[in-house]
């Protein structure tokens, strides 16, 4: 959520990060000799970006004021329509940019040998370009700029799926493209509406300007809210607009699926918090009961489809549909505790799902298939691979001590205080989660040693990838306080906006009762 406290950047850190990633991608495109070292170059650049971001946060970001927008940069772009190149991050934006710049070098290292040498330049170039867009999206403070980047994100993802994916890559890329375009066109209605009914001026689209503008009629506000929410729900992905995701992840490279589900799909929940609630609080409060019902359906549908899936890539995609249901429920519950959990969930899910997608990719390289039915007893052949799959799976089903436990607990406890029925339904989803992880593990990895299977276990590079991710799961499991300290102020202010919207519209159900809950601080 954009807060009206603005802290200008002493140094243009965010611009430097975006331009560095774009420049590196262009170099891989135009400098032919550099393509022979594409993976080394991409890894080096992504690590430099990670280090620079850590320096920026360490020197210029104050987590104690996480609701304030910091590292702010504003440059005129198209004054005639009131849009600017405007960067800045609050606590939520900072942790999401951090997730993106953390996962990119992990994905590059994991995909070291995924492509033939002549294709590595394009593959890693698109990943670097995608990194630039991810940083820019989570840092954008101008709604028009956010929309342009939201649409531009389709380009690198389309090529990463359609050019570098598996046998069904063309169909998967086209389905991703169509769903993304439809979501973007629906969102465009709200973007144009904010220009027509916004406060006007050369900075009309800045979030804090739009937040401070006079309110609009309830019908118009609901229309604009829905235009943004539907676009974000497709990206999230929520039931029933989730069907593009399993096809995409089944045929995309494992690294592409990691960045898509682990980072980019979080734009759905990020946008709900940063745009939908603060700009349209009354409509958000009115729609909250229906959205929570859809979130619960997502929890169950994703879990049941994961249990029924024989393809591990599709299984991980369906688990994510279920997990996003928890996040959306936490966002629209009106509970500051649940909303803090939802934001932490975004980070924890990114790390845990990255582990699952990448280890399934390693398994597929050895067994030439992602079908569970093609395996059995592989724990006796690849014990490290089996162990890392189990750890990543346990993190996603919220085992205490791993990354998923604290956010899921916060979402459930926060929701329980304001909407007991929704929380009880969600608890059943937790039970189903154990089934969709433990049952595939039992089928693929336990049992007698398979005959005529001669494959190597994870090598040093792959162990490094999984070791880094498991370390992140443990850190988030045992020491989530740094992330929570940064996002709690955002959750508190967003929950207050939602509760106020409920009170002023008469939508006084569970959402409004959250006003009595208290804050995270």
Radius of gyration: 22 Å
How large is the share of residues in beta strands? under 5%
Overall shape: it is globular
How large is the count of helical segments? 21
Average of the residue pLDDT scores: 88
- Side by side, the strands of the main sheet go 1-2-3
Uncertain ranges: 506-510, 512-516
* Major pleated sheet: 3 strands, mixed
Which class do the helix and strand fractions yield?
Answer: mainly alpha
Sketch the topology as an H/E string, one letter per element. Answer: EHHEEHHHHHHHHHHHHHHHHHHH
Alpha carbon gap, first and last residue: 17 Å
Helix content: over 70%
Number of strands: 3
Written account of the structure:
- The protein has 521 residues and is mainly alpha-helical.
- It is 71% helix and 4% strand.
- The protein has helices at 13-30, 38-60, 91-110, 117-139, 143-152, 154-162, 169-197, 207-211, 218-235, 244-251, 254-264, 266-279, 281-308, 312-332, 336-367, 383-396, 405-418, 420-445, 460-478, 481-505, 510-513; strands at residues 6-8, 69-78, 83-89.
- Helix 2 packs parallel to helix 4 (117-139) and helix 13 (281-308) runs parallel beside helix 18 (420-445).
- The radius of gyration is 22 Å and the shape is globular.
